[in-house]
Structure formats: C-alpha cells, structure tokens
Design goal:
Helix content: 25-40%
Strand content: 25-35%
Structural class: alpha+beta
Order of helices and strands: HEHEEHEHHEEEEHEEEEHHEE
Radius of gyration: 20 Å
Number of helices: 8
Largest sheet: 10 strands, mixed
Distance between the termini: 47 Å
Oligomer: single chain
Length: about 300
C-alpha cells in the first residue's frame, strides 16, 4: 500500500520542483501512540536529542534557546512536551532506530515508485514532538524537505524563493555556514505566503530553499520532517556555495543558475575544490545550552 494516498501524474511531475500537499495514513500507526513515542525517546541517543524553547513573537527569532534533557526518561520528556513550551528534535531517527529506518525505506520506495525520475540520497527522517502553541521561526533549509503531520495541528507559511524574502547573498551565508538558518522576518511578508493548515494525515513539501515558519495549534504536536537531496538539489547547493566563494574571493556578483549545465558543473567543481582546500572557514552560530528540564515538574525550565 502506498504511503501517500493521493499521488497524481501532476504531483509526480511537480515533486521537488513545486510546493505541494499530500495525504497519508502514518498517523494511524502504533509507533506514533503515546507508548510508541515514549519508546522512541527512550531509545534515541540522548546526546543527539535537540531540546529547544522559544518566545511568542514570530519576529524574535533570537529567543530560540537550546536546553538539555539530562537523565529524564522518555515518559518524563513526553510529559514535559505535553505541559511546557518545548520543541524536541530527533534528527536522523532512521540512522538510530530500526523502526524509523524501515519507515524511511518505505517512504522513499513510495516516492521512487510514483515519481521515478526523482533520485534521492542523504535521507534524514526527523521526529518532532512539540508543545501546544510552540513555533519555529522564519528560516530555510539547504536540503529538500517534506513535513508530515501525525498528531495535533500546525500552520505552515511558505514564502517565495526570491527577494525580499531571501536574496542570493543571504542564501550564500547560510550555505557557507556563516549564519544560522533562522534570519530576520517581516510580518508583512505573510501576504505573499502560501498558508497550509496541517492536520493528522496531511503533508506539505516545498521548493528547495523556500523560507517558511511554523506555529502549533493549542495542543501537543507530532510531525515527521523528512529531508533529502537529489542531484539537482545538490547541484544548486554547490552553485550557491561557489557563488559565495567567488563573491568573497574575487568580488564577483554571480547569479544562481538552475539545472545541470556546463556552467553549474563548473561551479560544482569549484565548490568541491574550495571545500577540499578549506578556502572558506564556516562560522556557524552555536547556541549555548541555557536551560534544563525539571525532572519533578513537567514543563518547567531551570537554568543550565
């Protein structure tokens, strides 16, 4: 049985190139029950677990803070998500949990069957467990992304891949890891966004590098964030990287070219060479650990 239940020839043709919504039935699986999620939290490597909190103003992305779960059990973590304002990010569950590795294989086999022209790699199935009214600030991803809603409801705004929402130089800074994926947001841009209200059984995917932001409804949310690359997406990422190197080293004002052409292949080679020679040193924003979850009071944050 297909993981996605509403493939059409038009969706297959637009997949990875357009913003699309799909229907699925993953929310009906026992692995996403309370017990299944608690088991995943217990089994997932604790040093890989992302624990975050944030403010309420969608403009104030600097309020995104990193914390630690310490020795809390999976049940205590789940209770903290139920009671507090936290975002638990279990990246690459397919590399650490056998059930999610099998799910990853199933998801991408489905994509290969219905969109056979799309070749995928660098697959990352992330499990997101987040509190009522939590949010993720305006940001973009280098990889292609699909967001699968399992429990609760969230609203997703997806913005155009163009000025003023994101410019070439802003993209270069992110790909070169000079800055965080989160960056300044103007609420007036909402007028140009696609808005998707995700409920259990809905999925949305968007164009590579499309800025987006997310707000949970007033209930616990569970989602899957599925990231991947294609040859075209990898080419675009390396073109942007090469453009950034040329802008900084040569004072050039390069443009982003699409597709696989002699120009993009040349930029791909330049990017790979620049990385091999360490011509550009990334300076990523590293969040300090500023809080810890209270083991005795679910949802309460204590200084780290």
């Amino acid at each position: 049985m297909s993981v996605i239940t509403d493939w059409t020839p038009q969706k297959a043709q637009g997949f990875t190139r357009e913003n699309l919504t799909f229907t699925h039935a993953l929310h009906e699986r026992p692995m996403f029950s309370d017990e299944g999620l608690i088991e995943a939290l217990d089994r997932y490597p604790r040093d890989k677990l992302g624990v975050f909190t944030m403010g309420q103003d969608p403009v104030a992305w600097e309020t995104w803070r990193k914390g630690t779960a310490g020795d809390l059990s999976g049940a205590q973590l789940f209770e903290a998500a139920m009671a507090g304002r936290i975002w638990l990010n279990l990246r690459e569950t397919n590399a650490h949990l056998p059930a999610y590795a099998a799910l990853c294989d199933e998801i991408f086999a489905d994509k290969a069957a219905h969109a056979p022209g799309v070749k995928t790699f660098k697959r990352d199935v992330g499990l997101l467990i987040s509190s009522a009214d939590a949010q993720v600030f305006y940001h973009l991803d280098v990889a292609l992304v699909s967001l699968w809603q399992i429990r609760g409801m969230k609203r997703v705004w997806v913005y155009p891949v163009s000025e003023p929402f994101v410019g070439d130089e802003a993209l270069e800074k992110i790909v070169l890891r000079e800055t965080a994926e989160q960056f300044a947001f103007d609420p007036a841009w909402d007028a140009a966004a696609e808005v998707h209200d995700l409920t259990p059984g809905r999925m949305v995917t968007w164009r590579q590098n499309a800025p987006h932001r997310i707000e949970n409804g007033p209930m616990l949310n569970v989602s899957l964030s599925v990231e991947f690359m294609t040859p075209e997406a990898l080419m675009r990422a390396n073109v942007i990287y090469a453009n950034g190197v040329m802008r900084r080293r040569l004072g050039a004002r390069p443009r982003i070219q699409a597709g696989i052409t002699p120009v993009t292949v040349g930029k791909f080679a330049l990017a790979r060479g620049a990385k091999a020679l360490n011509l550009h040193k990334p300076d990523p924003r590293v969040l300090p650990t500023s809080f810890r979850l209270d083991a005795s009071r679910p949802g309460v944050l204590l200084p780290a």
